[in-house]
Amino acid sequence: MRQDLLIGIDAGTSVIKAVAFDTAGQQMAVATRPNLYHTLDNGGVEQDMRRTWSDAAEVVAELSEKIENLADRAVALSVTGQGDGTWLADADGEPVHDGWLWLDARASTEAQQIAESDGIDEIYRQTGTGVNVCQMRTHLRWMQRHAPELLDQAETAFHCKDWLYFCLTGVRAGDPSESVFTFGDFRTRDYSDVVIEAMGLGGVRRLLPPIVDGSKDSHPLTASAARTTGLPQGLPVILGYVDVACSALGAGIYDPEIRPGLTILGSTGMHIIRVPSADAVKLNAERSGYTMTFPSSSYLQIQTNMVATINLDWWLELGCDLLASQGISRTRRDLLDGLDEQVLATKPRSLLFHPYISHAGERGPFTEPVARASFTGLDQKVRWIDMARSIYDGLALATRDCYTAMGPIPPEIRLTGGAARSLAMKKILADALGVPVRGVDQAEAGAAGAVMLAAVQQGIYPDIASCSEAWLTPRLQDSLPPDASLTASYNHLFKAYIDTRQAMPAIWRTQAQMRAALP
Fold first, then answer.
1. Any alpha helices (H) in 289-422, and if so which ranges?
2. pLDDT tens across 100-137, in order?
3. I need a surface site. Which of 30, 268, 350, 405 has the fewest CB within 10 A?
């Protein structure tokens, strides 16, 4: 029987997915399972590592119920997953503790200590990545101080996808994107002992696994993982790059002619450009953003809002709560239906919303763990729909803030994530950025990017450029152009947005002290 299918696992924050594609990039089937995590009183957010593996294995097994002879037709399996966080395993391969997610906010003090240390300039120069509360490096600092017994028990510090790769292959590894932006030098694409020592983590250097590039190397599926997933023992398994890098690849960032930007608006907001070499990487004075190694010797530069559509979720939940207090039962989906039309019927006005609703603060294009969301410019003429419009506007202006930190706004923005389904969000983004916005008809961009790496590693395509051309060009949607008159309005709003944002840090810190003092 012909081997003609590639399988991708994408272990996201909300959902774990297994997706099958044919070798031309057509999605054949998907199996999903809701992800589960729990929040602690100290700001921790943790996930059961064993359950994450069992869920991942089960969604792969479910694909066999949807695709006949999947095991015989599979060429390779590739895995990606949510970024940052810390997943510790011992020498026997057993979890030391639950995995810490990128949502975990307990290490804010440690993030600030690293950011204010004497070595921060060298750390940022080498990693090209700002320090924030959600990263493994800040988590390990917290553990050194508050839970050294976890580190004593640990043999390896994984990220989410690395843990799943270990469960599939028995190989302890990290990928070039996440390992390097956390602990390395993007120019050498390897760990940097200078960076590790500067962060005070020399004592846990032993926990960092070897780096494996999934565009070049694979390892075989173990017998035990084969029994669990229903796939054949020895099937090549590829360690994908971190989910945002795979999503960028799967959504069309690799276009050397247009050189587009890519915005992923989901729970978080990711704003991405690809640059051709290390020399083209642009660092910024605020020491923010991510620099990720990417296949073909290129790099991704990323500015990432801590949360994006969660701001709108919060607003809709308030509406649901208000209606419930009057005995009216509505869901967020009920309130979202028709909201696009209502928002587009309004116009941008002087009301501003800064979308920093996360209790972990903000990380792009500035890093401030105590940043908080706010409306400014309220008066008695403001209606509920005006405030909803200002949340859409705030997400678009935060996107512009991020792109501006990386240089000129790209000539086209490609949009994916949950917000890509919103016509209002696409139009407001185009108007606020002043460039066309184009959707990509690739529902599972993260899994697609992971299996594109597998397609190159397995020799189905000679390189990423040819794979991207074959997979993405037919899936590009029509672009939505900006309205020049509205772009002019957003130019004024953006200046006010930045001026307000830059005036807020002292207020945020005062409020943080107030929160700490309150019972």
1. 309-325, 332-336, 339-344, 384-405
2. 998 898 998 999 899 999 999 999 999 999 998 889 99
3. 350
Record the tokens describing residue 169, joined without a space: 């292959």
Domains of the chain: 5-244 (3.30.420.40), 252-304+412-480 (3.30.420.40), 309-402+489-517 (3.30.420.40)
Sequence letter at residue 65: E
3-state secondary structure of 252: coil
Strand order of the β-sheet with 219-220 is 27-34, 15-22, 5-11, 74-81, 236-239, 219-220
Closest alpha carbon to 105 in 371, 336, 319: 371
- Is the Cβ–Cβ distance between 132 and 108 less than 8 Å? no
pTM given for the model: 0.85
| Tokens 């794979």, residue located | 467
Give the SS3 label for residue 467: helix
DSSP class of residue 408 equals S
Structure tokens at 428: 């407001």
Q: Which two tokens stand for residue 297?
A: 């010797």
Task: Indicate the helix (H) or strand (E) that contains 166.
Answer: helix 160-169
- SS3 category, 515: helix
